[in-house]
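User: Fold this; tokens only.

Assistant: Input:
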Amino acid sequence: MLTKQIAYSILDLAIVSKGTTLAQTFNHSLALAQAADEVGYTRYWLAEHHNSEAIGSSATSILIGKIAEGTKRIRVGSGGIMLPNHSPLIIAEQFGTLGILYPNRIDLGLGRAPGTDQATANAIRSDFYQAAMSFPTEVQKIQDYFSIKNASEKVRATVAEGVDVPLYILGSSTDSAHLAASKGLPYAFASHFATTHLMNALDIYRREFQPSEVLEKPYTLAGVNIIVADTDEEAERISTSLYRMIISLLTGKRDQMQPPIDMTEELREVSQHSTVQQMLKYTFIGSKDTVKRQVKHFIETTEVDELIAVTNIFDGKDRIKSYQLFAEIMQELNGKG
């Protein structure tokens, strides 16, 4: 049992499996969110990505609306909106509207990466690099648009003023840790793929944290890859889809997610490559008992307040089951199971 209660949430990329349409993919995301709503997950976040056959969450705010409409309790939001891709005014209007439609249930996580390749980033916004360098200023604009005080300004997001949509700063390096700390905002680290700077970023954030109107003390979230099945062997088999996706990503051969296969010696050898191992350092695969030990050690090591579970596997039913088993793990670790 843990020394403090740890929230558990979901990050979804609306992964497109081979042979599955985008409409089916979006319905799978809704089914997962509804299942998560029933088993105690705190929030369901969707990540913004572009120009990928394997990822369907490009129009992030629209999918957030679909998920929020089809669920009852769970918070729904972005993990995150890549702010340099957008006008802060438009994002404030979109999320202010969502916050009005689904009161006290919408989160706005903000990141500074493009969420795509350089050519696509340029197609989205020709001055992307300049916008990325202005990330702290752009975040402040979002905060201003949500403030009631902005009512006297010449430019307003009238649908956002005074609406309760909490902001989260996302990061995959140490840069955003400084910003989240200075603004007194919650900090979410993308350790499900960017593992190198996790501990350093958490230390910077906690050391530099300045209390704010929204947060008295640091609040940290960390992404982890989770695949849970009835047995270690079944979880390993299901995980082959994830390993094949990562290998395709690293070799530049991007494709939709492939169905699982029996673990081969060749795939096992490639999965042990240092680059793959580093990228998937915080990946916990196995039965409930196996994953529970790994997760407990991760929480005790990082002292995070919340886990964001990422389960990129082929079959929608397997994914729901994995998340249900992970909820059981977290309830047991929290002393509620």
